[in-house]
């Protein structure tokens, strides 16, 4: 018969292991189940479906960034030449202008407690850094031809998509110089070392792996910082566009759940948001996909997406001049698929090792007490 000490030791070790496990896995704030579901009817949180310059309106917004810590959204309100900031904690539908007189914005990244904004200026051929409520932007590095994407790493080096040369540049904050990290300058193609008019960029800061929307190749490429070779993680490897779930059509932006490696894509020409699981051969639609239009289950040229801390999806619905929110309705875990050649989670080995460690500890304790 076990006595009370054995049980309390077991509970103690179990708590220790659980703490270890959760600290390990919860580096990233948001974790969304790869099998989660969202309401397909969206709610407009900014915008009125028609272009305008009032504080509750937008005019062809071309970029959006969700600042997780402050729970705010920044919108590159392109045709109004301004950046709008909107608090998700607020019940009103008006935004405030945090920067203005900026031409041809095509993407936005926000840093430093929401106070520093980096914008890609497509026809101005550069990245500019703006301080909230500042009157001037400051150019970052050298020119960036047809600049359409921007992201920062932990050291604050700036990654810029130079779609005009089919490449991605990394600007070093330390040396003020740029190097090519993806694609080949002035050469487009659909092999693994080429890009064709890349647009959005997303970096997983946990491992410095980044993802590029290779727009004219209708695919998403994933690559390591130290290699110009990339692999296709969504869409057709050969660059063929299409509407079936194995394809994409002019993807503009990508968002990656850093813990699960699940990627979400603004599949612009298909007017939908697609989800692709790691190693999947097809994706599935989580929002839009009901034709181009401005009904609440439709999108029109979506060009950016993000999730808030509760797992709700936000879409910059460019040609509808609005930001749509799709509420998370199910965060259920995925059914276990018994198929050895099919890897749903890359994380399973880690989980198994933890489980094995946990069980071994349990056995050790039992042996000691018996
Ligand atoms: C806003 O739009 C109105 C009419 O569409 C125009 O008269 C006004 O000048 C615009 N304001 C700014 C700041 O652009
Ligand atoms: C974001 O939150 C931080 C901490 O509360 C605050 O210091 C900062 O001013 C906020 N940023 C903006 C843009 O309001
Ligand atoms: C960084 O490089 C750019 C382009 O070569 C140059 O215009 C700029 O003055 C440099 N900035 C600094 C701080 O050296
Ligand atoms: C979704 O469920 C997982 C557990 O399966 C949990 O860790 C996570 O926080 C949930 N995410 C959201 C956004 O509720
Ligand atoms: C197992 O997964 C592979 C690769 O995704 C797939 O080709 C195969 O059809 C799957 N087999 C079954 C029985 O589902």
CATH topology of the largest domain: Neuraminidase
CATH top level class name of the largest domain: Mainly Beta
Main β-sheet, spatial strand arrangement: 2-25-24-23
Which series of helices and strands comes N to C?
HEEEEEEEEEEEEEEEEEEEEEEEEEEH
Total separate domains: 2
- Full CATH superfamily name of the largest domain: TolB, C-terminal domain
Under the CATH scheme, which architecture of the largest domain would be assigned?
A: 6 Propeller
User: How confident is the prediction overall: mean pLDDT?
Assistant: 88
Class derived from helix and strand content:
mainly beta
Rg, Cα atoms, Å: 22 Å
Shape, per Cα inertia axes: globular
Compute the number of strand runs: 26
Listed once per kind, the bound small molecules are:
2-acetamido-2-deoxy-beta-D-glucopyranose
Notes on the protein architecture:
The protein is mainly beta and 370 residues long. The protein folds into two domains: 1-33 and 346-370, no CATH class; 36-332, TolB, C-terminal domain (Neuraminidase). The protein has two helices and 26 strands. It has helices at residues 4-25, 348-369, and strands spanning 37-38, 43-47, 63-67, 72-77, 82-87, 96-100, 105-111, 116-121, 126-131, 138-140, 147-152, 158-162, 167-172, 177-183, 198-204, 209-214, 219-224, 231-235, 251-257, 262-267, 272-276, 284-288, 302-307, 313-317, 322-326, 328-330. The strands form seven sheets. The chain has a four-stranded antiparallel beta sheet with strand order 2-25-24-23, with no helix packed on it. It has a four-stranded antiparallel beta sheet with strand order 3-4-5-6, with no helix packed on it. A four-stranded antiparallel beta sheet has the order 7-8-9-10, with no helix packed on it. Helix 1 (4-25) packs antiparallel against helix 2 (348-369).
